[in-house]
Write a structure and sequence with these properties.
There is one protein chain. This protein is α+β, with helices and mostly antiparallel strands. The chain folds into 4 domains: 110 residues, Beta-Lactamase (2-Layer Sandwich); 115 residues, PAS domain (Beta-Lactamase, 2-Layer Sandwich); 82 residues, Orthogonal Bundle (Helix Hairpins), CATH 1.10.287; 147 residues, Heat Shock Protein 90. It contains 13 helices and 17 strands. Strand 9 and strand 10 form a beta hairpin. The site of magnesium ion has 5 residues, from helix 12.
Amino acid sequence: MRSEHEKDLLLKAVDGYKRRLIIVSDDYRILSSSYDEDKDDDDSIVGRFCYEFFYNCSEPCRDCIALKAIRLNKSTIRTDYTGFYHGKKERCRYSYPVMDNGVFRAAVVMDHEEPGIREMEDQLKRSNAFLHNLINSAVDGVIAADMSGKIIIFNEAAAEITGYSVAEAIENLDIRKTYAPGVAEEVMRLLRSEEYGGKGKLKGYRADGMNQEGQVMPISLNAAIVYEEEKEVATIGFFHDMREYLEMQSKLKKTQLQLLQAEKMSSLGKLAAGVAHQLNNPLGGIILFAKLILEDYDLPDGVTDDINRILRDAQRCSDTVKELLEFARQTKRELLPLDINKSISRTLFLLESQTLFHNIVIQCNYDETLPHVPADSQQLNHVLMNIILNAADAMDGAGHLTLTTGRITDEKKIFIEIKDSGSGIPEHVLPHIFEPFFTTKEEGKGTGLGLSMVYGIIENHGGTITAESTVGEGTKFRIELSY
Ligand SMILES: Nc1ncnc2c1ncn2[C@@H]1O[C@H](COP(=O)(O)OP(=O)(O)OP(=O)(O)O)[C@@H](O)[C@H]1O
Ligand SMILES: [Mg+2]
């Protein structure tokens, strides 16, 4: 039994509890209340219905915690509750039954706050918001998914790269759909292996992603598996689109190759020019003196034939030297406004009648609005003639030859494309076709000077020439000239 002093102390302890503590019967009547000297309602509280006194209601609250404690016969707790005093949100309400010899007597109900929880919650909210901002402002796409493939995190960069909106990705996008078919499975396999940055990690992996429109795009991916006590619970990937980078890289490579080619051509050109000069004088001498012998002496027939042979061959040498000089830009050129379409049709007119072209279907797609281009008409004819003759050779006299002209918008340039349906040029041969003396034709059929001369002329006009080819399908030459 408690002494009077003990009881007095207990009562003071209850009153000292700075929040309201009430004892209610199972029909919601307030049987007793802690005494709060700051409130002046204490005299009137006993005997009133708790719902009426505290909440001004005419019937019990729907989820009355006291009733629950009574029913379950054990202490009950509830968070986020409107406290006994109107308008003030309490964090926690606590109720427990008061028993007397196993018989229910009443329920105690009290409010109390748990400042620790609130602070922790605020802190959690703040750090959540910070993390959210962090992920969203990342330049890389960030996607996290649970192990079923359902997306949990999808930042704005990911939305931009893939074309899905953040909302639709979170709602019903499967992570597998952001990869090309089969790639997600491969990524998971690599993630689980030790070889690519350690188990559960994948670093700088080049994968094929897929956007909303089903287009496959190259991506660079850093990914990880998120573990909780050794168990895989999620995956997270940081990635960026590689298209622009790869495009730049290939442009750079092309430019490097072009530079290399130009350099090679220029040194070969100088060499050729030097040789041509050296040959020009003695050749002139041979031709001159051969002619003099023919004129000055009465020679037997056989000798005249031989000397004529010397003259013919010397003349051939002289022609080759001329082409070499042309290639090396040693001949004069005259740039005048030229109608490219007309140049093409003139060249075709000359060639079409030849037997080599009888079974070749020629199609011309002229841009009739093509501006005149400053060019040397004779040299350009030479260019066209060489390319077209090569095409006819490659088609072995039968096939399709297509000539197209057009403007390059925004660049003050025109282009000429000459496409054949011939044998095509193997990949390892293509880089050499503009080199002087490079030929795949049998001896006597080609000197290998045609395209090198073409290259020299076009370069001399400030233009460019490129070739694309597929073996078995044909070859396309493209010339670009400024106007
Ligand atoms: N349209 C084409 N289709 C396939 N191969 C081609 C084509 N044009 C050029 N080539 C290849 O490029 C090589 C070089 O061509 P180029 O015109 O410089 O010399 P060529 O035709 O062999 O001799 P020529 O000096 O008599 O013109 C050819 O031998 C051929 O292998
Ligand atoms: Mg040729």
